[in-house]
Amino acid sequence: QVQLVESGGGLVQAGGSLRLSCEASGIIFSISGMGWYRQAPGKQRELVAAITRGGSTNYADSVKGRFTISRDNAKNTEYLQMNSLKPEDTAVYYCYADVYSSRYFNQDYWGQGTQVTVSS
Asked: What HEC string does the chain produce?
């Protein structure tokens, strides 16, 4: 089995910064795509940012220029640096990873979610 453990959420004032981390552990042959979603109260879960194993990234329009996703393949860890935070960024943030437990078998795993609250 594989577990994703998130850390780094919290309460911050508008304009501030936070850095989320998500470490995968367990039976891991390799990790393909990784990324972050968020879900605000009463809203659907939305993609925030994604990164391929080779480092290609894509972002939601709402966070472009403010958030940066990165990963350390040696540590099976991804990061989300969030700058210039706005109250509308308030949500529970979930990491995911497309994990290969062998050369031919892969499955998506999710973190437990971490709360990010931005006060105005």
From this structure: CEEEEEECCEEEECCCCEEEEEEEEECCCEEEEEEEEEECCCCCCEEEEEECCCCCEEECCCCCCCEEEEEEHHHCEEEEEECCCCHHHCEEEEEEEEEECCCCCEEEEEECCEEEEEEC
Phi/psi at 95 (5° precision): -95, 155
Residue 31: its pLDDT value, please? 97
Both tokens of residue 118?
Answer: 């931005």
Contacts of 67 (CB under 8 A, 6+ apart): 48, 49, 59, 80, 81, 82, 83
What gap in Å lies between CA 120 and CA 117, rounded to an integer?
10
Cβ neighbourhood burial of 105 (10 Å; 0-12, 13-18, 19+):
exposed
Q: What is the pLDDT of residues 53-79, one digit of tens each?
A: 999 999 999 999 999 999 999 999 999
